[in-house]
Design a protein that fits this description.
Layout lengths: L5 E5 L13 H10 L4 E5 L2 E2 L19 E4 L2 E4 L2 E2 L10 H20 L3 E5 L1 H15 L3 E5 L2 H4 L5 H13 L2 E4 L2 H9 L7 E3 L14 H7 L7 E6 L8 H9 L3 H4 L2 E6 L5 H11 L5 E4 L7 H7 L2 E4 L8 H8 L4 E4 L4 H4 L6 E4 L4 H13 L15 H20 L4
Parallel strand pairs: 1-2, 1-7, 2-5, 3-6, 7-8, 8-9, 9-10, 11-12, 11-14, 12-13, 14-15, 15-16
Antiparallel strand pairs: 4-5
Helix pairs in contact: 1-15, 2-3, 3-5, 7-11, 8-14
Length: 401
């Protein structure tokens, strides 16, 4: 058997001993690539000054510099971030933070390629290191790195420099590919490789059995949100839409919100102010292994985001044959067939979101045959990524860039 090619993954989007569900889509892809390549991973974390370490959002400060996650060693170097200040310097600061670890891995591991997830700052730092050492580089774009951060001129400049400097760019949706082309990237340098699912976990489940497993009431219609508590996810719009349901319909339903993030306390305060009979429950994040039971227990997943890349939770819901309500943004229309597997609405339109909830409560005829996005597994993703890796390595060896 020929020796496996060696690679380095660079991204902040990997799980760690504190944030065990972080970047699960990148983690699932990495696990499949590990079967084909000899990989090392660098997952930089922001350095936290001592006076801020008691805040829940900075709990990652206790993560060691290196840890094993399911038998795979991940490096966690620290980098300086000054929130909202000198954002254009984030790439340089991240590069400075990871250079020592990368140079050690380069000497010991001698990588044939680098895959960086997230264009800036991760991809930019990876590009500078790849360029210094002549290592082929793929940057995989995920969503806000292009949809949000390129709105600012300085970060747009650095993002495009990294994308143009990479050997190839991968987008998780056609919408992201189109956005990069509009920004001036050559179409032939971008390949769409959408996410997959683990069909051994995400498949149709008995609703009553899942509710019993989770100690949930058997009768109410459950709207489920799973995601980060951030403004971009439309969490307050969701709360307002649910509370705007007529009293008789709201008494038949529950809204369960699962997740963590910068707005979690504000979300908790908003729900608390509504009183004990609001019908809304806020829960902490669950391990990825626990998500299938929640999708099985739910009647409808809701994701009212303002912006998205290719949200895998929608694909997982469809695989469990649960209809969804989601915003018509980013790659979501590539996942959800409006009127067949769910309802698509404009973002930040609370009355339309409430109307979609009313439609679901009246009965939505889910068409499992139309849930094509749910038929793609992570091995197919690894096949696509492997083909790109082999091509860029061969091109470099043949003198083509």
């Amino acid at each position: 058997m020929s020796e496996k090619r060696k690679g380095v993954i660079i991204t902040n989007l990997l799980p760690n001993p504190v944030e065990r569900t972080r970047g699960m889509f990148v983690w699932q892809e990495t696990l499949r690539l590990l079967k084909r390549y000899d990989l090392r991973a660098i997952s930089p974390l922001p350095w936290v000054p001592a006076f801020m370490r008691n805040r829940p959002r900075f709990a990652h400060h206790v993560v060691p510099s290196q840890a094993d996650i399911n038998g795979f060693t991940i490096e966690y170097p620290r980098h300086v971030v000054i929130p909202r200040i000198l954002r254009s310097s984030y790439g340089l600061l991240l590069k400075l933070g990871i250079t020592g670890v990368f140079e050690r891995l380069r000497r010991e591991h001698k990588p044939d390629f680098i895959v960086a997830h997230y264009a800036f700052p991760d991809g930019w730092a990876a590009w500078r290191l790849a360029r210094r050492y002549g290592i082929p580089l793929i940057i995989k774009v995920r969503g806000s790195d292009v949809n949000v951060f390129t709105d600012e001129a300085s970060r747009r400049k650095h993002t495009l420099a990294a994308l143009r400097g990479a050997d190839h760019v991968v987008a998780v949706s056609r919408a992201l590919r189109n956005k990069m082309i509009a920004l001036g990237l050559a179409p032939d340098r971008i390949t769409v490789v959408s996410n997959g699912i683990d069909s051994t976990r995400f498949h149709p489940r008995d609703r009553a059995a899942c509710r019993s497993e989770l100690n949930l009431e058997p009768d109410p219609f459950i709207f489920l949100f799973i995601g980060s508590m951030r403004k971009i996810k439309g969490v307050f719009n969701l709360i307002e839409a649910f509370t705007a349901l007529p009293d008789d319909l709201r008494r038949q339903a529950r809204l369960v919100m699962i997740g963590d993030g910068e707005l979690r306390q504000e979300v908790a305060d908003r729900i608390g102010a509504l009183g004990a009979d609001s019908g809304i429950t806020l829960l902490p994040p669950v391990d990825h292994d626990g998500i299938p039971a929640w999708l099985g227990a739910a009647d409808c997943l809701v994701l009212p985001s303002v912006m998205e890349g290719y949200p895998n939770v929608l694909v997982e819901a469809l695989a469990c044959e649960r209809p969804v309500i989601a915003s018509r943004v980013g790659g979501i229309p590539e996942i959800v067939r409006d009127g067949e597997t769910g309802i698509l609405i404009p973002p930040e339109e609370q009355p339309l979101l409430t109307g979609a909830m009313r439609t679901m409560l009246a009965g939505f005829p889910f068409d499992a045959a139309a849930a094509e996005a749910a038929s793609r597994d992570w091995e197919a993703v690894a096949d696509d990524m492997s083909a790109i890796i082999e091509r860029i390595v061969a091109n470099r060896q043949g003198g083509v860039q």
